[in-house]
Amino acid sequence: MSDLASRLIALTPRLRRHARGLVRDASRADDLLQDTLERAWRYRWRFQLRPRLGPIGQIGQIGVKDESDGLFAWLLTIMHRLHLNAVRRPDRLELSEVPPDIPVDDDPGLRRDLLRALATLPEDQRAVLLLVGLEQFAYKEAADVLGVPVGTVMSRLSRARERMRVALEGAPIASGVFSAPGDGGSAMLHRVK
């Protein structure tokens, strides 16, 4: 088995989890994953390794992430483009069923609430939230995967976090009004990258 084939197999669970977050249906997610892997294998000659960068940027050192050579980002780019093409086709119906097997927490109520809140997000906001929040991509990496500017990633992420907060907590905070820690208000989400 080639090195690329073994790496594709190793990345399959993460890709499947991401696909399920995108399409919110287990069978469609598996179809999307299969199409992604098939396309990646067919066009494997197009993938170009990036030099692996260490924590302070030295070439040749292994970075913090195992996908620092760009393979995972390349696969997610393929997946997002295939998903966008499928969404644009009028013969596809959007399913509102949320997959029950995305690992969230041991609390089934919290899991259900998170999945429902995630399902209410628009596609573009959900994609950014999955990349930055779940996959721990930097803003620049998420922007490259989605083919949008970094500022767009930041604004979509901000809107997605606010929608998630409202969906989970209830009433929205008035624009520009933030609660202080310990005053009984909601905890503020903070930027991770």
From TrEMBL:
It holds the Pfam family PhyR_sigma2. InterPro entries: PhyR_sigma2, RNA_pol_sigma-70-like, RNA_pol_sigma-70_dom, RNA_pol_sigma70_r4_t2, RNA_pol_sigma_r2, RNA_pol_sigma_r3/r4-like, WH-like_DNA-bd_sf. CDD domains: Sigma70_r4 (cd06171). Keywords: Sigma factor, Transcription, Transcription regulation. It comes from the Bacteria. The keyword rRNA processing does not apply. The keyword Coiled coil does not apply. Residues 13-47 form the PhyR sigma2 domain. GO terms for molecular function: DNA binding; sigma factor activity. GO terms for biological process: DNA-templated transcription initiation. Residues 112-164 form the RNA polymerase sigma factor 70 region 4 type domain. SUPFAM superfamilies: Sigma2 domain of RNA polymerase sigma factors, Sigma3 and sigma4 domains of RNA polymerase sigma factors. Belongs to the sigma-70 factor family. ECF subfamily. This is RNA polymerase sigma factor. It comes from Ralstonia pickettii (Burkholderia pickettii).
